[in-house]
Amino acid sequence: MTEVVSGAGRGRFDNGGMVGEGGCVEDRPGEIRARRRRDAVEWDVARQMAFAVARPGRVVSRELADADGCVLGTPLVAPVAVPAVDRSAMDGYAVNGDGPWRIVGHVEAGAADPGVLEDGEATGIVTGATVPRGATSVVRSEDAVVSGDHLDGPAKAGRHIRRTGEECKPGDQLLPAGILVDPAVLGLAATVGLNRLTVVPKPTVAALVTGDELVHRGPSSPGRIRDAIGPMLPGLITRAGARNGPLAHLRDDRDALVEALRETQADLVLVSGSSAAGPADHLRAVLSDLDAELIVDGVACRPGHPQALAQLPDGRLVLGLPGNPHAALVAFLTLGVAAITRMRGLTLPALANIAVPGGVTCHPTNTRLVPIRLTPQGAVPVGHDGAAMLRGPAVADALAVVAPGPSEAIAARLLPIDPGARPWIL
Ligand SMILES: Nc1nc2c(c(=O)[nH]1)N[C@H]1C(S)=C(S)[C@@H](COP(=O)(O)OP(=O)(O)OC[C@H]3O[C@@H](n4cnc5c(N)ncnc54)[C@H](O)[C@@H]3O)O[C@H]1N2
Ligand code: MOO
Asked: Domain named MoaB/Mog: which ranges (predicted)?
């Protein structure tokens, strides 16, 4: 794991891009601040920094129905034995001893006390029903030869009986803390009789989509760009394991962004389209207005270079997504998913390696994120991968994380396009 040194690479942030290293600038009349332009951090380091700065939510008790997708905050310990009693694993006959036997009754699924079987006796039984005391095995109905009240068939001691405590005993730890609660975990919790789980709740992620030029219905036209980021975010947020907070559209206005960031209650606030150095790109100035601490100021990757992550004084995180839609997706999958992963109480997964049989040209200094399809031969680029294009990502399985280098990469790591996908192990 890349070490992230607390404080290193952080600092108060001003409207970058207009002055050089270590310069001073007047942002607003009478407001002079020292500023240092920082280098973009390496892609892997940026991801680790986003993970490191985020904080897991406080554990809460949740009804099972509300716990799917949360993370266990404490180990899951069985309060009872499972099975609670000896149960039949088959429909057929519970028998005592070797055959033949005399059939003396029938045990229904819900029978609380199935009674006692004496040597040489059998009783009809259904799968899951409690076996009578004294039963030594169960003969499956398809193996049973019945004549009147006489039964014959193969019997082997213990056969087709699920013994008390076979799955777990009281006090057994079934799962450690930190496990994702999925449907199987919910079923297991119910099996051992729990109604609630102690979990780290899902973080809430809100979004502010900025841009005077944006329209939200119909096509782009001269002077108008159809918002392609707003429609992506709710699905990305839920797939990343977070809850959707409000999504608002803002004009390119510094004061409006300050106000919106002050008011938006969420663990993480995404701000799109304000990340670069143009006259309408207010994010960094706004972060300064709000006394935010800059955590990541640009990432050495293509696309997604101007992405930024900051922390407001009250602990909320703000992620600046570049306006180019593919770059915004890359930024969410890089810094956003890393921060959300930590907030959820999970560890940041290592990314699988894969061959790139056709080779991909490396960027000399930046990590490239290239939309690819997974094939039996390895990762195959899908094309249409410009920073403003979503045509490539829309058909891709993953982004190939291509390390900087002088020539062609023949291997890369895989960042799933669907942040809810478990990382592949190849
Ligand atoms: N002088 C510089 N210019 C730019 C730099 C830079 O470093 N110096 N970086 C470039 C890169 S890389 C990117 S990415 C963009 C990031 O721009 P912003 O985050 O400030 O966003 P805008 O300038 O508002 O928009 C850029 C581009 O994307 C379109 N856009 C914005 N929001 C949306 C949306 N919701 N849906 C669809 N398209 C959107 C916008 O209309 C612009 O065409 O800056 C480069 N420039
Ligand atoms: O890197 Mo920008 O983020 O090219 O689109």
From this structure: 206-342
